[in-house]
Write a structure and sequence with these properties.
Layout lengths: L1 E5 L2 E6 L2 E4 L5 H5 L4 H9 L9 H6 L9 E6 L3 H10 L6 H9 L4 E7 L3 E2 L4 E2 L8 E2 L2 E7 L5 E9 L1 E2 H6 L4 H5 L5 E8 L10 E8 L2 E9 L7 H8 L9 E4 L17 E6 L3 E7 L2
Parallel strand pairs: 4-15, 6-12, 7-17
Antiparallel strand pairs: 1-2, 1-12, 2-3, 4-5, 8-11, 9-10, 9-15, 10-12, 13-14, 13-16, 16-17
Helix pairs in contact: 4-5
Bound molecules: 2,5-dioxopentanoic acid and magnesium ion.
Length: 279
């Protein structure tokens, strides 16, 4: 089932039917262990309403309220290769090989909810950066009890020149206004997402596709549960948290985003997250 956060309430889409939840608080709705079962039980009391489909396009919000957004790094071989290249002048490449092979994953704080944008909103490029890319990432929703209860799509906007100049600049390359997007919904199902699910990204500039690529999430080096267990080692999340799982798609080194570019990220089971780069 897919759960949509809208200005008119929480909409559940299940087997091509649409329901408006009686719960209006996103934190309370999502932060439950065994969320799939809990929502299936709630559905028995609700009546389907086809008119709700309209709200999914016109009133959609990011699927977040008071959760934080965390991110994982260098979880795909392609990400390791790209970071080595971008940081070679600063001699930082060795760090990326080491973290790819290490037992402890790279985890970093990406964004608070108030700085995270939703579907159809604008993502941003830092004004002091000249080399920028979107990073399309399967994003886990983990409840406060530490279990993975849902999935969404994340865009981990990144300034490659800043990150490449010195790995210690990572927080500035990754965290700024408009650097994180989530949506369009939360996929909630009985079982973990299909390990062969594909993530694809298309970048459109002046009506032409200037970049497109795709990768299967089975190319990820680490398990989702492994990333979550490290994140929860010394952190509490009273409302649950989002965790981006890293990118396996990075455009060639001569590509940078422009203002006005449209970024479309698709995972078929979840939908497509579309954002425009702000002017
Ligand atoms: O270490 C740099 C960031 C890595 C990252 O964001 C990714 O691999 O997706
Ligand atoms: Mg990333």
């Amino acid at each position: 089932m897919r759960i949509y956060n809208t200005t008119r309430g929480i909409i559940i889409s299940h087997h091509d039917q649409f329901f408006l939840s009686e719960e209006r608080d996103w934190n309370v709705f999502v932060n439950r262990s065994n969320l799939y079962k809990a929502v299936c039980n709630e559905l028995q009391q609700l009546e389907a309403n086809d008119q709700l489909t309209e709200l999914i396009t016109s009133a959609l919000l990011a699927p977040i309220a008071d959760q934080e957004v965390w991110a994982s790094g260098v979880t795909y071989f392609r990400s390791r290769e790209a970071r080595i290249e971008e940081s070679k002048d600063a001699k930082g490449g060795d760090f990326y090989t080491r973290v790819y092979d290490a037992e402890r994953p790279e985890l970093f704080f990406k964004s608070p909810a108030y700085r995270t944008v939703g579907p159809g909103s604008q993502v941003r490029i830092r004004k002091d950066s000249r080399w920028n890319v979107p990073e399309p990432e399967l994003t886990l929703f983990v409840c406060s009890g530490g279990t993975i209860e849902g999935y969404t799509i994340g865009n981990d906007m990144s300034s490659r020149d800043i990150e490449g100049e010195n790995p210690l600049y990572l927080p500035q390359a990754k965290s700024y206004n408009g650097a994180a997007a989530l949506g369009p919904c939360l996929l909630v199902q009985e079982n973990p997402i299909d390990p062969d699910a594909a993530i694809s990204m298309e970048i459109v500039r002046d009506s032409a596709v200037v970049f497109s690529d795709q990768i299967s999430i089975n190319q990820m080096k680490r398990k989702h549960t492994e990333l979550v267990s490290y994140l929860f080692r010394e952190l509490d999340f009273p409302h649950g948290t989002f965790l981006m799982t890293g990118t396996g798609i990075i455009p060639h080194d001569d590509f940078t985003l422009h203002a006005g570019d449209i970024v479309k990220i698709t995972i078929a089971e979840i939908g497509t997250l579309i954002n425009t780069v702000a002017q």
